[in-house]
Amino acid sequence: MREPPREWHIDEPQARRTQPIAVLAASAAGVFQPIKNMLRISCPHCGIRDEVEFAFGGPSHVTRPAFEVSDAEWADYLFNRENPKGIHYERWQHAYGCGRWFNAARDTVTHEILAVYRMGDPKPVLPGAPRGRAP
Amino acid sequence: MQRYSLVNVIRHALRSNTRWQPAWRDPQPQRAYDVIVIGGGGHGLATAYYLARKHGLRRVAVLEKGWIGGGNSGRNTQVTRSNYFYPVSSAFFDHSLRLYEGLSRELNFNVMLSQRGLISLAHSEHELETNRRWANAIRMNNVDSQMLTPAEIKKLVPLLNLHSRFPVVGGFIQRRAGISRHDAVVWGYARAANALGVDIIQGCEVVGFDLAGGRVNGVQTSRGNIASDRVVMSVAGHSSVLAKLAGLRLPITTMALQAMVTEPLKPVLNAVVISASVHAYVSQSDRGEIVLGGGADAYNSYAQRGGLPLTRSTVAAAIELFPTFSRLRLMRQWAGAVDVTPDTTPIMGLTPVHGLYISCGWGTGGYKAIPAGGDTMADTVANNRPHPLISRFGLDRFPKGALIDEGAASGVAH
């Protein structure tokens, strides 16, 4: 298998807009057309693909605590989540593609994917303005 | 408060309807309150109303960053039901349904509760077994439910296609369940709370808390600081953001839950139909629109708009069940930012910060809980201990591992 590229993929803004509902009803009725306005995710191994090929894997960089911890610390690890309004570092699997896992940094308000990086890599430093507001 | 009655409707009609008063005031925030409720949705307004009516607290403010009922209270599908599996959930949600049953009279505002019945469909023998277990558990919880054969379902819902790709082999009904009018619930509570002296302050965003020694002393808002030693957070999808301002981390994931309506029709569907397998639920509003809902998008989102792949799967599931609807056009599609907990049970009660209370984690089913949520939170705040009905819904259930996994038990997210 080809070695994945070392650098991150920085995508163009991918803010989604609503689509005329007629197109959607037509597609649901069997007249299939590609849905253009959904997440387009750049798999580090396969390139840009549609959202429906991927499975979401929740937040990344959640570190399991040491063996001996209090109930509160263990519950914090198991259940509590950062859940930011803004940049979210998260895991995705290209389930209906290569099947491999990777990380993405995505804005939870605009849905813009700002970076895609490999499992095990540290959080990328993202340039630009603070996030979390719709444009 | 001007009462709404036939006599008053006639009297105002004779004066050309020019003398109706606004249903609530638009007050300036005062410097201090007995209780501040953050969030002017159904839950926040109901909490303020019961604080004033049942506990005699008159200096209560509801702070809303946008307009009341503009969040999830205005984005739900109005389904009102109490068919829960665990006794602790059933007791709470049936309390809510009972309050709904008397709500129009209590608030002097027609919330248009229509107990037309809610039918959960089974599409396989295994699902039918699960439904039977669930329906029996509901009866054991002293809530009504009844198994239905395909013929009985067809009689209640003639348009339903029993021979769909996943054939309908049975189901069960909660006859007391149904729909009500979501805006009316918000406006009814707002009007009644206002009449009891509650200040409903719109366009007032909380940007920080005044904390000292593990206690809350007030909030910082876009319209100045307001003092209060009791503050309730009731902000649904934004709970994590708000709680972080108070130094709290929550077991909440915010997701987009979408719904949509078609163009209006004459009455064709006199029940709420839910299918957990194909994941769609369908009802007809009093305005004639067919209301469709489905699952939430898989990923974290504060965007208040749903992804199209899920819209498509919801529509596909709905028209498989009701082929007649395939010629209808959708008029609107929208989403709410819902606060989902790991066990799909709400989080209510005290927090580690003294005087700071929380009501969140309503996930995809907060609307039906508005009256009970407000009633029990008001009691909790007034007495500084969890109301008995919500004593197991506290934040402390997570370290204890005492989860109430209603989603797993009943096989459908709320």
Could you please describe the fold and organization of this structure?
- The complex is a heterodimer of chains A (135) and B (414).
- Chain A is α+β, with helices and mostly antiparallel strands and 135 residues long.
- Chain A has a single domain (21-117), classed as Folate-binding fold, CATH 3.30.2270.10.
- Chain A has helices spanning 21-28, 71-78, and strands spanning 40-43, 47-50, 55-59, 87-93, 101-107, 113-117.
- Chain A has a four-stranded antiparallel sheet with strand order 3-4-5-6, with no helix packed on it.
- In chain A, β5 (101-107) and β6 form a beta hairpin.
- Chain A starts with 20 loop residues before the first helix and ends in an 18-residue tail after the last strand.
- With 414 residues, chain B is of the alpha/beta class.
- Chain B has two domains: 27-76 and 182-250 and 343-410, FAD/NAD(P)-binding domain (3-Layer(bba) Sandwich), CATH 3.50.50.60; 118-175 and 253-340, 2-Layer Sandwich (D-Amino Acid Oxidase, Chain A, domain 2), CATH 3.30.9.
- Chain B is built from twelve helices and 19 strands.
- The two termini of chain B are 36 Å apart.
- The A-B interface holds A 16, 18-19, 21-22, 24-25, 27-29, 35, 37-39, 51-52, 55-56, 58-59, 71-72, 74-76, 78-85, 88, 90, 106, 108-111, 132, 134 and B 238, 240-241, 249-254, 260, 298-303, 305, 307-309, 311-312, 315-316, 319, 326, 328-331, 333, 342, 398-401.
